[in-house]
Write a structure and sequence with these properties.
The chain is mainly α and 269 residues long. Helix content is 59%, strand content 0%. It has helices spanning 2-7, 9-30, 40-60, 66-76, 89-113, 115-125, 140-157, 161-178, 186-192, 199-203, 210-213, 223-227, 257-262.
């Protein structure tokens, strides 16, 4: 069964992405958290265009993936997990998913702290609105750097391949969810954000105020922000009034699809 699942990795990831994307897009129509401040069509074309490019780049590198690395490591018996005492597979998988989530939190912090990495990550933050497509607005170079980072981690730790696939599906799904412009009841959000990053929690991260931009780095689990002091409960201006985007990238007409690809290489905006 595991072999069948891993063999169909691309279709599993695509199916998960499609189902969650459609669900969040419909939820945004039925119960939006905020009114859109920009034209939707140009943003969606640009943001989804990045998804296509990112997918093509990863397809060209189909031999290089976090799951493929995990399979190779398992076959060779490399990595820390392959030298530990035997534990139940479900426990190994759970620990692997939590470790990967922590690693992605650290990666996100680095992409904010290192100027060269920030040049690529700011493509994500330059979106002047916040909806489900913001969750896929990543420059191809950032996607490649993240892939290399995850492959190195998987190889060093010897993480189980099925756990890596589960994490990748969860990461895609939660990125769509916590960027969605969806209204959650206050009580639901208050409880849920103890276990999962919610849209209201992550939206603060997209504020142009640096103290808010450098907070709430988590994608899946909210615990790392609370543990390392990067958690912020509410934006200073409130969710309906807060600005979205970056102060040095405020003209959306300057950043169509090709502009987003070129943005990191411009000396100034």
């Amino acid at each position: 069964m595991q072999d069948v699942i891993l063999h169909n990795e691309p279709w599993i990831r695509l199916s998960g992405f499609g189902v969650v994307f459609l669900a969040m897009a419909l939820a945004e129509r039925w119960a939006p958290r905020r009114q859109s401040g920009t034209a939707t069509a140009p943003r969606w074309i640009a943001n989804l265009g990045l998804v296509v490019v990112d997918s093509l780049v990863l397809r060209l590198l189909s031999a290089a993936s976090a799951v493929g690395t995990a399979l190779a490591v398992e076959a060779q018996g490399w990595g820390m997990f392959n030298h530990l005492l035997r534990t139940p597979p479900w426990l190994e998988g759970l620990v692997a998913v939590v470790l990967l989530d922590f690693a992605i939190y650290l990666q996100h912090v680095l992409f904010h702290a290192v100027p060269l990495l920030w040049r690529f990550h700011r493509v994500h933050h330059s979106d002047r609105d916040f909806d489900v497509t913001t969750g896929v607005r990543f420059h191809p170079v950032e996607i490649l750097l993240s892939l290399i980072y995850k492959m190195g981690l998987v190889a060093a730790l010897g993480l189980p391949a099925i756990a890596v696939l589960v994490f990748e599906v969860i990461l895609n799904a939660t990125s769509l969810f916590n960027h969605a412009n969806v209204l959650l009841p206050v009580g639901v959000d208050r409880v849920l954000r103890w276990f999962l990053v919610t849209p209201d929690m992550h939206r603060i991260h997209h504020s142009p105020l640096r103290v808010e931009t450098d907070s709430n780095f988590g994608f899946n689990l909210p615990w790392w922000d609370r543990l390392f002091g990067t958690y912020r409960a509410q934006p200073a201006a409130g969710h309906t009034a807060m600005a979205i985007g970056l102060d040095d990238v405020r003209q959306p007409e300057r950043w169509p699809f090709l502009g987003l690809l070129a943005m990191p290489f411009w000396r100034s905006l």
